[in-house]
Predict the 3D structure of the following.
Amino acid sequence: MVFAPKYRGKILTGDVAMICEGIICKTCKELGIEIIEIAVNPDHVHIFFKYLPKYSLSFIGVVSICGRLAASMEALGMAGML
């Protein structure tokens, strides 16, 4: 799965990249999703994971991970970036 910030802006650097990776890992752990590999690049995130069939891919990506990332970025004052 690939996530990209709004307009594919190069905002995923430094502390922002570390925070995003942490939120993704925490969300996946809470849902029982095994992350096989994750790569945070300046303009997108690659996630290779194994999940139970009780979750749809759209639920995992849009509702769970993107929703939490957006809420966290808003709390950090970076609203509208993701």
Remarks:
- Helices lie at 14-31, 57-75.
